[in-house]
Amino acid sequence: MTQRGRERTRRGRRGDPVARRRGGDVPARRPRQVRREPGKPRLRLGIATKQGAGAARVLGMSTTRRAAMIAIVVCALAFTLAVPLRTYLSQRSEIAQQEQKQAELRTEVAQLRARQAALNDPAQVEAEARRRLRYVMPGETPYLVQLPEDSPQAQQQQAQNRPASGAVWYQQLWSTVGG
Question: What local confidence, expressed as pLDDT, does residue 77 receive?
Fold first, then answer.
């Protein structure tokens, strides 16, 4: 009899879909039920585990799929925020440059106003005319001192060393090669 029982379990039922998938006559195995010892308490799952399992059941996704979905959402948020953040940072640097330029222009305006106030004085205008334009008041004798660097001969030698600016480039090249 024990052999008949074993044969029955080996053959399985013909209508069993699990047995068909496994290759015919082999029945599906059922997990053993573990018996508790009377003195040991049951292990209880924490509240967080139960809630997580409930969320997995509701969403119908495994933890790997949930992690992948979270990663996709985080990447989408990062890409969504990247362009406005780059624009914001570039505008901040541009504003800093414009403020620096504005400060420089303000100092230049202050210097020009000081110069304008100085040129309102007739004595300052006369000194500028003497220095820049070499004006002389009536009855004065002007003297012009020439230093060796300012002599006309030195200026002529420099002009000869320089090629003519109106010449074509190949003429300038030929004059430097030919000597």
Answer: 93
Q: What is the mean pLDDT of each run of 10 residues along the chain (179 residues)?
A: 51 51 58 66 57 60 89 94 93 96 97 92 90 89 79 66 68 80
CA-to-CA dists, residue 159 to 17, 154, 163, 166, angstroms: 108, 9, 8, 13
Instruction: Encode the chain in three state secondary structure.
Output: CHHHHHHHHHHCCCCCHHHHHHCCCCCCCCCCCCCCCCCCCCCCCCHHHHHHHHHHHHHCCCHHHHHHHHHHHHHHHHHHHHHHHHHHHHHHHHHHHHHHHHHHHHHHHHHHHHHHHHHCCHHHHHHHHHHHHCCCCCCCCCCCCCCHHHCHHHHHHHHHHCCCCCCCHHHHHHHHHHC
Q: What are phi and psi of 44, to 5 degrees?
A: -110, 140
| Amino acid 25: pLDDT | 58
Residue entry with tokens 């209508």: 15
Which amino acid belongs to residue 151?
A: S
CB 112 within 8 A of CB 104: no
